[in-house]
Amino acid sequence: MKTIFVALFIFIATLAWAAEDLTLITGIQHNTTLQWRVTWMRLDWDSAAVEVNFKDPSNPSRQVVCTETGALALAFMSQLNTANLSANSLQRRTIIWAIGKGCLGAGTISGTPE
Fold it and tell me: Does residue 11 fall inside a structural domain?
């Protein structure tokens, strides 16, 4: 009985410490996009949803969609609705929002509002 118990204990302990790793044949290429531009945004008050599409100006097929729903979406839409857009443009505010959400990396916002 002791032999079975010891063998079972060793088997369970081995399972607890076992780990598997995957070594990739080809490494994952990281996103090398350095610029993002707002291409469209959807503000849906009834569904409490915000969607913003950003694209890479040098590679338009590379896009990111940043979304928010619920109370946070309503708060962002309310901020946009009451904002003084002559101080900070709609696009600038949207980019800052996306950076804050983690959809886009931190960086410098440049250019003139259109």
Answer: no
